[in-house]
Structures are given as structure tokens and as C-alpha cells.
Amino acid sequence: MSESEEYLFDPSEFEMVEGRAIDLVEFFGEGGNIAPPREDHRSGYVAVIGRPNVGKSTFLNRVLGQKIAITSHKPQTTRDQILGIHTGENAQIIFLDTPGIHNPKNKLGKRMVQVAEDTISRDADVVLWLVDVNTPPTDEDRMISERLRILHSITPLPLLLIGFNKIDEWHKSDELLHQRAAEYRALLEWLMDENDDDGQEEIPIYPISAVSGQGLDDLLIDLREFLPEGPGYYPEEQVTNLNLRFLVTEAIREQALNLLHQEVPHSIAVGVTDWEERDENMTYIAATLYVERHSQKGIVLGQRGSMIKQIGQAARPQIEELVGTKVYLELWVKVLEKWRAKENLLHRMGYS
Ligand SMILES: Nc1nc2c(ncn2[C@@H]2O[C@H](COP(=O)(O)OP(=O)(O)OP(=O)(O)O)[C@@H](O)[C@H]2O)c(=O)[nH]1
Ligand SMILES: [Mg+2]
Prior knowledge:
The chain is of the alpha/beta class. The protein is built from 11 helices and 10 strands. It has helices at about 25-30, 55-65, 105-125, 140-155, 175-185, 215-225, 245-260, 265, 295-300, 305-325, 345-350, and strands spanning about 5, 40-50, 80-85, 90-95, 125-130, 160-165, 205, 270-280, 280-290, 325-335. The protein is globular, with a radius of gyration of 21 Å. The relative contact order is 0.17. The structure holds guanosine-5'-triphosphate and magnesium ion.
């Protein structure tokens, strides 16, 4: 065993929980079974953007009725574009969850913001800008408005809507809600410029709760109307295009975010290093958590391996649900000096 690598999580110490198997065909689709074009069928891409922690990934999971994206009360959880497919009677709405737009401090942060901006200007038919209704616009919201203005000056933005998320926590009057709407609309005055042919007359605002589900049905009805006519792009049973290995690494990262504090979870990248189907009902998975410094390695391991053990235990039920079998999980920790600042290491970690 190399010095920078330690094996510390012995799965045999844990009793196996019964895997709550999901139907993989339902999850990933059989492929090829694309719905034929129907009259009045609509389809397209909705980019879900906003500053970190406003609830974009929670929104995606809620709308899909399945957990695809990891979530956390800590900011900067999502690092990639996460595609989720919502297929209804007469529409297929493809949601693109994005990393929170923030002022980046390293190459990983820059890459995350780039992913969000590319999703807006390259992939989206509609942009849903989620904000936290309970907070007046923050510096980050103002920065997003400025970034949107710049993107719009290069390529006209698709239709932009605002989602007032976390409405379940709003206990103030309707009048104050209107005031809040005016505060956010004011950030987009430049888009409502009547001299701009590519501008918008109004910015629709949807009060929603990704946690309680409030307002989501109405939003979905309107989103459908805003999309162009077209066939479903994905088989109707398919929920995402993400591969299982990626989802497994994310499940581990989610628990690291839950259990670790400050900069440590943000310094972690997870890679699957081994994957074997041992038998019909048992999959062996080994994964490595990469950290940036030796001190962080100690924290992730915890006293006599107690922390990495906890991360593994917490991640395993979700992984078993994803894989559909019981899972034998081995976790390792490795130092990859300042990987978030180095292009080649970002690439190696799958962030390129
Ligand atoms: N009360 C309430 N909390 C919410 C709602 N939506 C999300 N949250 C919480 O807000 C926190 C952040 O949620 P995420 O979905 O991870 O936020 P995000 O916008 O994807 O964050 P990043 O990936 O970091 O950009 C979590 O603690 C969620 O439980 C909501 O509608 N109501
Ligand atoms: Mg997220």
C-alpha cells in the first residue's frame, strides 16, 4: 500500500441493508424507443440556473420524482450539468441543473461557472433562474444579472423566467411578495428594454417550493407552452443520461458534504477505481476520495478511520438503490496536491 493511499473502510464490518432496487430500464431507458412525433407535442431544454444553494438540484429531483442530483445545505454542491428528463402526455421537458454561479476562487470554480453559462447560451430553450424568495437580491444575484446581460449581448438569451423558490418559508404578506418581485425584476431591466428586439416584455415569476412541491404543476404547464413543438428526444422511460458510475461517485460526495465541514468537502473529488458484479445480488465497488492536502486526508479518514467509515455507511443505501444489488463498498483516500487549481488534474477528475 503506497504511503499516500490507505484502505480503511472494511465493508464486512457492516451488515448489508436490503437494496431498494430501482428498475434500471425505467431509470436509464432501453434506448432507441423514442416517442414518435405527435401533433401538438412539445419538447425542449430548460436550464435551471442561479446562485449556489437556492435549490436548483432539489427542484430537479422534485420535478422528476426521483433523486438524480445530489443536494446539500452547503453551497457549491453541483459541479456538472445534470440532465433530467420529464416526459408527460404531450411534452418532454429536459431540465438541465447547473452548478451555482458564483465568484470562482479556483479553476474548478471557473469551470463550474462556465458549465452554467454554456448551458444558458448553448443548450437552453428556456432559462429558469431560481432565487431564494426569502432574501433580497444578493451580490451574487447581481453578478448573475450582469453575466446574463453580457451573454445576451453576444447571443440573445432564450426566454427567461424567475422561480421564487423556498416559498414554503415565506410568511410575509402578498404585498411584500410583490415588492420582492419588483426587486428581482429590477435586476433584469436591461432585458425589458423596448428598444431591444431580442428583449422580453415581462419577466414571469413563479413562486414555488422544491421541497413541498407548491407551484410546480403550474410551472410545468407553462414551461410546456414555452417550448417549441417537437418530438421527445429521449425514450419515455428514461430519466437521465448520466452514467451509473458518475451517480455513484456523486452519492459518495454527497455524504462527504453532509459529514465534513468548511473547505474539506469542497476539496474532494471521487473516482470509482474498481467495479465488479460478484454475483446476481452483489456488486463490489472501490472508490477513492481525492483531497488536496495531507491535513485534509486526516480529517476525511477521521480517528482510526471513523469518518470514512461513516461516509461509506451513509452512501451505501443510495448506491444500492442506484445499482439495484447489495453493494460491497471500499473507500480509499488519496492526496492529489491542489487538484482544483491544476488543469490536468481537473481533467483527470472528470472536470474538463
Ligand atoms: N425550505 C426549503 N428549502 C429548500 C427548498 N429547495 C431547496 N431547499 C434547501 O436548500 C438547500 C440547497 O439545496 P440544493 O438543491 O443543493 O441547492 P443548489 O441550488 O442545487 O445548490 P448548488 O448545487 O450548490 O448550486 C438544501 O438544504 C435544500 O434542502 C425549498 O423549496 N424550500
Ligand atoms: Mg445543485
